[in-house]
Amino acid sequence: GSRYSPDTKRLREFANRNRIPHRFIDLEVEEEAEHILRDLQVAPSETPLALLGEGHLLRNPSNVDLAEHLGLKADPGELEVAELVIVGAGPAGLAAAVYAASEGLSTVVLDSVAAGGQASTSPRIENYLGFPSGISGSELAERAVVQAEKFGARISVPSAVTRLETEEAGYTLRLEDGSTVQGRTVLISTGCRYRKLDLPNLQEFEGVSVFYAATQMEAAQCSAGPLIVVGGGNSAGQAALYLARSAERVYLLVHHADLGRDMSRYLVEQITQHPGVEVVTEAEICELAGNRGMLESIEVKQLATGESRRIEGSSLFVFIGTEPLVEWLDGQVATDSEGYVLTGADARAAGAERFEELGRDPLFLETTLPGVFAAGDVRSGSVKRVASAVGEGAMSVRLIFQHLES
Questions:
Q1: Is the pLDDT of residue 221 over 90?
Q2: Is 173 helix (H, G, I), strand (E, B) or coil?
Q3: Number of C-beta neighbours around residue 236 at 10 A
Q4: Please, how many CA atoms are within 13 Å of residue 109, restricted to the half-sphere of its CB?
Q5: Which residues pair with 308 in a beta bridge?
Q6: Which of 72, 76, 220, 271 has its CA 20 to 30 A from that of 317?
Q7: Alpha-carbon distance 128 to 119, whole Å?
């Protein structure tokens, strides 16, 4: 397919996020692409194509179609009743899967995109215990998947959950494809999504030159630069350093004046010492300029002075905060004012009436529904770090056992 096609980008991202070995043939630059289209009698308008083994040809398949052909999506018949259903396969969900399955709980893990969550898009995590030289998010996710499956956890992607229903003996989760999974307990570990810039023509550039991850795939799609990263947290800092390896220049735009306010000190030091990264503080993007989805420049307003500045850049990477992925819960568990799930004492204060008949309060990671727990970034009050998400996922298993025993 074409590197400029959003559907090509979608399929490549799905393959990369799920660590599927593959080769990309670019219609824009590779002569081989024309020969393939001619041999298959396929018009360029029918691309992107997915060519699989044994002669299978898929014309612009959905992620679900591709997953089914690759055997990533579990047969609904295999997902009947589990003692624990984990919704979201980020660090918290995968940690819970490893510990639950290793302790003998029948465990099912569902994720709408890929195992690894947001963390799998991080090019290098340097502050995770046991990896002094750092580890990529995708490698960490791959190791966790192997570990969970070794103990018997069943992981199904993409399996988007659309609704949680209460049953007498537990809960039923309805999936986007119409199938259901039943669980005696549920762990909500859906994490968050990155917020988008409030710009009228943003959609024109998304998937082609505006990205929400900085992995090898996105870096390969960019020209030598200059590149622009917007955000003041660790994800933005990691992305800027990773992209600076190959780009001629990287601009890091931060909304406030202090780079160290939301970013770890080790990243601040590396960024300020890097000759290829220019930090622009108190900056706000007010316009994107380009042609046919290809970014050429952005207009930045300096908040301190009100002056505008135009910065040339071929790609924009956006890391401007997150919002919880809780739409599928449809208000069935209590959340805080920003939508993050309340647990423990906060859940009790929000009104956990269903616990009265059990004669106990919600456990530390338990929501306002008995047997429904939350861990990781989706939980109100959690520390937004990979290590803490892994810790909460592991801790949730002990609390799940406590609930089942009662």
A1: no
A2: strand
A3: 25
A4: 33
A5: 301
A6: 72
A7: 12
Tokens 């190791």, located at residue: 143
DSSP 73: S
Place of tokens 């959609």: 203
pLDDT at site 160: 94
pLDDT reported for residue 384: 85
The HSE-up count of residue 397 (CA atoms within 13 Å, CB side) is 20
Cβ(173)–Cβ(181) below 8 Å? yes
CA distances from 344 to 90, 98, 213, 351 (A): 22, 23, 33, 11
Mean of the pLDDT values across residues 10-25?
A: 91
Q: Which residue has the tokens 């762990």?
A: 187
pLDDT digits (tens, 9 = 90+) for 128-157: 899 998 898 889 999 999 999 999 999 999
- DSSP label at 260? T
Reduced to 3 states (helix: H, G, I; strand: E, B; else coil), residue 291 is strand
Give the residue-averaged pLDDT of 22-36. 92
> Over pLDDT 70: what percentage of the chain?
98
Q: Is the torsion defined by CA of 182, 185, 189, 195 positive or negative?
A: positive
**Cross-strand partners of 170:** 167
What strands lie across the sheet with 210-211, from one edge to the other?
A: 210-211, 315-318, 227-230, 250-253, 277-280
Crossing angle of the two packed helices 6-17 and 63-70, in degrees rounded to 10 = 40
Span 176-201, average pLDDT: 93
Query: What's the pLDDT at 224?
Result: 65
d(CA 99, CA 79) in angstroms, rounded, equals 19
Paired tokens of 128: 């995770």
